[in-house]
Amino acid sequence: MKCLLQWISLMILSTVGWSQGVDSTMAISASPFIKNKASIAAIHFSGNKRTKSSVMLREMNVRVGQEIEMDSLFNCIRVNEDRLYSTSLFTDVDVDIDTLSAHSIVLQVRVKERWYIIPEFSFDVVDRNFNVWWTEKNHDIRRSIIGVTLKHQNLLGNREQLGVIAQIGYRQEFGINYIVPYLDKSKKHGLGVEAEISENKEIFFATDSNKLKQIRIIGMPMLRQANVSVAYYYRPQYATTHVLQATYYRAAIADTVYQLNPNYYSNGSKEMRYAALNYRISVNRVDNWNYPLQGSKIIGNAYSLVGFKGMDFNTYFTLEAGQFNRIAQSPWYTSIIFRGKLSFPAQQPYALQQGMGTKYEYVRGYEMYVVDGYHFGLLRTNLKYELLHYTIKKIPLKYLPTLPLRVYPKIIADAGYVYHPQPGNSFLSNRLLYSAGVGLDFFTAYDFKIRIEYVINHLGQKGLFLHIHSE
């Protein structure tokens, strides 16, 4: 309401002119509002006790001295609120307009910072996803991974990220990473380093009829891994980021795993060592990076792996593209997301033959299956309705003063294809996979998301699936 009144007053001033003791006709002829524009005299920040104002200004698309069309003021405010909120640095963002004169305004940016150093206690399962663990493994609590991540997302106020990860259970892991996104005054160049070691008590050593076969021997680790990497970040514009990352990776399997699958690594090796170079480009023009409703994004990766042992050479390319739209001014939204992968050469060790069914690449409704392959394409479509868009305010918690609640019922339809030159007994490779269903998305503070989906696949199988990450 405050912004509305300010905008109305500005429009009146731009129409009739504003002058102290001067004829209005003379004021109009002298006023720059003939062009229906307002000049930004200053941008004031408040509430950012740790975050530097220059970091916030880097995310915004306005600058002091810039002229803005009067009819685009509200859109300007909304865009900049979305941009600052997408940084994951704040729980609340509010941009207001203060009027200085008929041709000059001040932007007041008020924020409430998150709790930047949060011990994140995690409960995960050794299986590919929650649905496999719940259905096929009878939700055996012993197949769990308990972890804690101590992460600081704004160490010195420049969005530096320092993270320490520790896990116990079926997978034991320790890792550390540090990212400095801004090394220069222009805030375009950054650097990151990461190191990680892990040990798996259970390993998936083969795929049989689109199901993973696994082995565990009490008291004996099945897989040991270690990697270290360094990355260079270049962000010339708000939406565009380039990343060049170099990684050294080493892994070794137990003798039992090798006996069960001698092709787990190449050349009859029980160990894999390689150096990798990865180039990534992302152009993200969505309204909210954590849960987009409008805009577009494209993310491309080019990987090159040079093997020292257990593999020779591998190159693969991945692409993700998404288009998100609002239907007119209604509460209905559509989204189309494509993911794809091309991998070379034709002969690769089993450890690198990842198609769909692991991580986030799967046709919804096929969560219970794995489809190995060298190339794949995946298309996800959604029609969503904004059932609830509400924010609980004035919560008496320092780092959670507001609680956003967003609920989106949806209709979904997916299609995918995985190519494998030697599919074996896979009945899902080299054929079109498709599904349809309904679902419900829930999104709230600190980027917490839940997806509940009821889907029917082309096999006629029906299921209710739960996910705690974005699509």
Descriptive notes:
This protein is mainly beta and 471 residues long. The protein has helices at residues 2-16, 24-30, 53-59, 73-85, 130-135, 255-260, and strands at residues 37-46, 67-69, 90-101, 104-113, 117-125, 144-152, 161-169, 171-180, 189-200, 202-208, 211-216, 223-234, 240-253, 271-286, 295-309, 313-326, 332-344, 375-385, 388-392, 403-419, 433-443, 449-457, 462-467. Among the domains are: 2-113, membrane protein fhac (Ubiquitin-like (UB roll)); 353-471, no CATH class. The protein contains six helices and 23 strands. Strand 21 (433-443) and strand 22 (449-457) form a beta hairpin. It starts with a helix and ends with a strand. Residues 1-34 have low confidence and may be disordered.
